[in-house]
Write a structure and sequence with these properties.
400 residues, Hypothetical protein af1432, 21 helices, 9 strands, disordered C terminus
């Protein structure tokens, strides 16, 4: 057994199957995929990787297994799944997940094919672990899969604290030790034991504050929208295949974007933080349902219609419509007065956080600075938006 120094958990002990998995090319690739993708254009110190995060998730899974009395090969399987839970991510993580889903029909946590062959399969099988079992755990299936991917998973416990630490913000603080000690299984469902309503609330408060200040910062959203569109162009107009794209690192993707004429201009903008600006920044209540619920193709059609009416190149109009507000963690099971109850049923605070999500929601329309006014005027008509309340704030304070 040896120990790895970590910025969040201090020393993380690794041995056995986990130590062997760390040295596989698939895990080492995660050293070159940033955890927060375009957020680092807002918070300069947010340069941590999915490799660090994966180690942290394994560490918390190991502690959870000890607390819950999970041992032997079953504990090895849970810990291996925790370490490998992000191995299916494409470059820039979640930022390219929609592209990979549309092109290859799989989410990052659907990794049966990836684990079923090559070095990962060899290592897992050499330790007596079935690749399908590990893939199912990563996908959150079964009793123990809830620890890896669920409402109380160790993934969430690590990334909130890690992302806050590296971003330099105080909002992601949660009591990991209390959460781990409160975990229990009731009828094979993972829950928090009695007396931990506030513990569960704290995790949702941390997530809500991180969403508002870090994960959904408008600069990150602009860069993310630019990246998604130029990646689509890379796959449509160059020889790069979807499978090759899905296994790139961040640097490999940026190099590929720079290499091809069809994508080099946006690649240069992303590399130098020369980003588009907000033409429209609209609240949920002001946006018609047909726009809020539009699928990918419909959003692209709306972009093309706005660009044509504004007489600007189609690729310079980007419509970013988040999904409807949701908070799956609000259904976390908590023992209250001897009964297992859902968190949102017991907590007025959580109900308030759910309402706050709707208030914070914004539709974004992004374009180069010189086109902002023209594009904005056209977009208000095409998207059926009111003029009032759709103009972004003029604040220039950092992060901007």
């Amino acid at each position: 057994m040896h120990a790895i120094k970590d910025s969040v958990h201090d020393y993380i002990e690794v041995s056995g199957v986990v130590a062997d998995l760390l040295d596989t090319p698939q895990m080492q690739r995660l050293r070159h995929v940033k955890q927060l993708s375009t957020v680092r254009l807002v918070y300069p110190s947010a340069n941590h990787t999915r490799f660090e995060h994966s180690l942290g998730v394994y560490h918390l899974a190991r502690r959870a297994c000890r607390h819950l009395g999970i041992d032997g090969s079953r504990a090895e399987a849970v810990q291996a799944a925790a370490l490998l839970h992000d191995v299916g991510h494409g470059p820039y993580g979640h930022q390219t997940e929609g592209i990979i889903l549309r092109r290859l029909g799989r989410h990052h946590d659907e990794v049966h094919d990836l684990l079923g062959q090559g070095e990962l399969a060899r290592v897992l099988e050499s330790h007596g672990l079935h690749t399908d079992t590990i893939a199912d755990l990563i996908d959150g299936q079964g009793k123990y899969g809830q620890l890896v991917s669920g409402e109380l998973d160790v993934d969430r416990m690590d990334y909130l604290v890690r992302d806050a630490h590296h971003s330099g913000v105080p909002y992601g603080t949660i009591d990991q030790g209390r959460l781990l000690r409160a975990l229990t299984f009731i009828d094979d469902d993972l829950a928090l034991s009695a007396g931990n309503l506030a513990t569960a609330e704290s995790m949702l408060v941390a997530r809500a504050l991180m969403n508002a200040t870090v994960y959904r910062h408008h600069v990150s959203r602009i860069a993310g929208a630019m990246l998604e569109q130029v990646c689509e162009r890379l796959l449509d107009e160059t020889p790069v295949s979807a499978e090759e794209f899905a296994r790139m690192s961040d640097d490999e993707l940026l190099a590929a974007l720079r290499q091809h004429e069809a994508t080099s201009d946006v690649a240069a903008r992303l590399a130098t933080r020369d980003l588009y600006k907000r033409a429209v920044w609209a609240e949920l209540d002001d946006v018609p349902d047909r726009v809020v619920d539009a699928d990918h193709e419909t959003r692209r059609d709306l972009e093309a219609e706005i660009a044509a009416a504004a007489d600007v190149p189609a690729e310079t109009v980007l419509l970013d419509v988040p999904g409807r507000p949701s908070m799956p963690e609000s259904s976390t099971r908590v023992v209250v007065n001897g009964e297992v109850r859902r968190l949102h049923e017991e907590s007025p605070l959580v109900q308030g956080l759910q309402a706050a999500q709707s208030v914070q929601w914004r539709l974004g329309l992004f374009t180069p600075e010189e086109s902002v006014e023209t594009v904005r005027d056209v977009a208000l008509s095409v998207l059926d938006l009111p003029d009032a309340g759709t103009r972004p704030s003029g604040s220039r304070s950092w992060p901007a």
